[in-house]
């Protein structure tokens, strides 16, 4: 608890977003203790061994909505113990009000979490004032905890406008953000004045990195399909930035980009959001690198054609990872 | 716990929706035990004395999102004890997943609640299948508990379409619904085949009652501004239905209707929903009949002009109540 | 041109909305003179013979967007000549700006049209001020022309809020409105203070009529599937109002209501609006009473499953009409 | 008419979007011949003298919706004559159906226009099939005319998804597009396979150019506030691309970017779209470089605070232009 806060500059490279692995009966509302703690430890070790720079967890696909309180504590413990301080670990403590969030965040801190990837209570759509004050209150209540703004407009009924970024940039604990899209990236970067490291998704990282040199980190839920894809993206962008030659990074995007399409039903982020957890876990399971396991209720139902698309996305990602492995062997030979 | 389930026909007349009265420090995230239990008991007694037929609580304006677990139990206890079986009491047990909802619903049942006004987990927008299965699972888990579907499209990211009504009508525990609007009332009534009593809001009750003779109950959050307005509406519609002469009921709507307008900022239900709790509590406090008290965080911030509109709405309602009192005295003299 | 303006009270009973019948090549952008003028005359005569009280035309399904100027004049002439003053005839003169609308409305007046069913220019979403001023300007420019507000929120990017109705009620030429839904019917009726006859769709007429005694007219695009259905609805509501016994009207709605469902893809008005013309013309052709003909470009493309639903809707309507004929024969025998 | 079609590669640099200058009475629906032809010629000459690379016109702010047919021909003539072949000139021929669009596009071709900036008929929201077929039909009907897709989602009720771009890229006449945003830029660029030059707005040009080397052209409605700002942006990006040093271009964006904010009411593109014409013309008039003149009906009404923001945006742009002039003088001295 005496650790100093991170700074935006400390958040760098490839950050994996991980699911909460579940046991086989996890879709049954009668089930308890559904977290697969062994798989949790295995995944964390695997990601760190693969060179991942940080871990985000307990967001939407991490089933923060549907784990019981006890399961949350169990999972946090397993995660933090496995990481053992090798990389920063952000858990998720989003609740549907300020006071429960404060309480859970304090528990996470006591367990040794470096930070919380934190969304806004979503029963009512938050106004700008409500959203900003929520982050201020949590930061005031748990001043040793780093905060990653979890900027998901569908989950939190909030579009995270520029004035929001300008205001939360004043909160020292807010050091990073799981960010979506590049439409407003440049003005949002202007609004935060270097105080928050915005993390685009892996699929947007190449474009975002070219738009602004300050973008040197991203999040990747694909990392658990095959981490080498994620670290390769990170390294190619870093090499391009150093050399000024972006051709290899761009060529790699030509291989990575098409894996995104089948994940989004009808190309719609809104439709994806309805089935977010089921789609992401199906994709991860199809990747074959980890066992994400069944979805906790009530979100365990999803149309089969959507799941098939997600699985295809995971398989494509994994195939790309295997091709990269083969290329590395070829290069080494 | 041995009480038989209600039937749709048992849900009749004027059902008050009440807030969770709060102590003066309730907007501070440091506060605990914020429920004003004395005011809770006083309001319940007052409503029953005034002739209200049932009580709904712990919805959006009832701050189900922002009470702590302990506060929920305290409030339920006070509410159920005060009602003492004189009218049916529905608490609210909406949580952000199935298992927490089941656990809380079981606690509510054990405390003696007649039912739960139950919304759908709202982190992800529920698909039709997810929403229906959620109600089935809760009903299976707590079979002695009556369920009122809490059909708020803004809160729950779900538009409660006709097939939803057709499917939840198969669940015996689902006996009523806090319903919004009259746009789809007739087809939705056809879909439920008499198995669920749909409760329109007070402002829509006259129109809904004229549209269909089966509509003989409604919900009223205005009841706590002055219950006589709510019971007068109920009685005038009943008299009209009996006599076939709707002129007095219609004339009364001409007095009641205008009190709604200032409650909705720019006439928008979506905008109202963002500030639902603050607006409703301001309106109630302005009514002068009860002390709703401050809003729990993070929803305690609201633009002053919106609050002024809400207060005006509450004052207009209260003035109508006083006028009705005076007219009753005049008629009696 | 010396005819006095209609009043709201003059608009009564069942108003048919008709398509612009087209020749077989009408979906080809090379085609000209695509209006089937013979079918136009036949349909108008048929509707009037069947007892329809008024005719609305050249709205969305009437292909006002896609007829050439010459075709519009040809169609108006055929329509007005066939009606020959027996019932009021409203054409449609919606253009994408004020000046073109004025010019076309003047031409329609010169041809003998009683009124124009008039929407708002839809390139930009109109603000409230823009929408109101548009109707004021057209009314000022063509003071002898009756105006029916064409209140379609999807077509015109405008939600026709209460203040709109209050303001256009001040324009003497505005005597009626093609109205959608019943959600806001009572407050909108209050806003117009008796100066505009709001016409709900046939499917909503029973409910609207019960909600308010002033509702004694409606529009029906189903009329051209089989006019007896439309006039039966009108007559049963009138009889119910006179007798106070609504049971026969309600029972009839139980037969009519289900014909609506297959017309709306996935139950969505927004989705219906995308394919409005193709769906309505397919429905009408399937009714077998008239030949609506192919859709003019660019709106001639529509997914086959949607068309199948629309055809089913038309067949169901036509079957209801035939059943009514048989029942009338039975009753007469 | 014997001119060969342009290719995507021919569309380069800074393309100005111009309004249709209007005479003082142009907001009156009684007015005719409202185009200020002298100002039209002056503006075209001024832009070309300032080094602008191409001209787009008769879009939303160019009042394609509200000019009469005669005015459109007058304006096209003046515009094309003034340009005299020195830069490519695109007029706008968007109508609310295919056949009128074909007719007007043929007239524009006959007058010597190089291309048409063409939106989709917007009475009904177009489905993907309808939108694609519309462009195919116009291209087939007027094969000598270059087409710029006018991708405005608010005006045309269409979100221009990736499959749209993939399909219209097959049409040889489609050589460029007035494009909005950068959110989907990289996948859309992949979809068009180099066959269409996508033009981002000036405010997005820096970011888009960094994202992809193929982006070497943009549109600018600010050009008529002070063209030097627009050409400076073009030149700094070109220099950065040549040298690999983007610092001067980025620093310039830091000066240009803030002029955008006051143009968008509450930061909303949707709200901007409602008042697009009034806001853009107010901004242009405030720039002082040209006289855009009053707005044609019905879009001439706009809240004063919104206009004030637009004027501020225009003044800021003009001041930046003057500062650039002064800096150029200083550098030359």
UniProtKB/TrEMBL annotation, chains A, B, C, D:
Active site, renumbered: 150 (proton donor/acceptor), 178 (schiff-base intermediate with substrate)
Where on the tree of life does the source sit, at the highest rank?
Answer: Bacteria
* EC nos: 4.1.2.45
Q: Which reaction does it catalyse?
A: (3E)-4-(2-hydroxyphenyl)-2-oxobut-3-enoate + H2O = salicylaldehyde + pyruvate
Q: Does the keyword NADP apply?
A: no
Q: Name one GO molecular function term.
A: trans-o-hydroxybenzylidenepyruvate hydratase-aldolase activity
Q: Which SMART domains match?
A: DHDPS
What name appears for this protein in its UniProt entry?
Answer: Trans-O-hydroxybenzylidenepyruvate hydratase-aldolase
- SUPFAM superfamilies under this entry? Aldolase
Question: Family assignment?
Answer: Belongs to the DapA family.
Species, as recorded:
Sphingobium scionense
Q: Which InterPro entries match?
A: Aldolase_TIM, DapA-like, HBPHA/CBPHA
GO BP term, example? naphthalene catabolic process
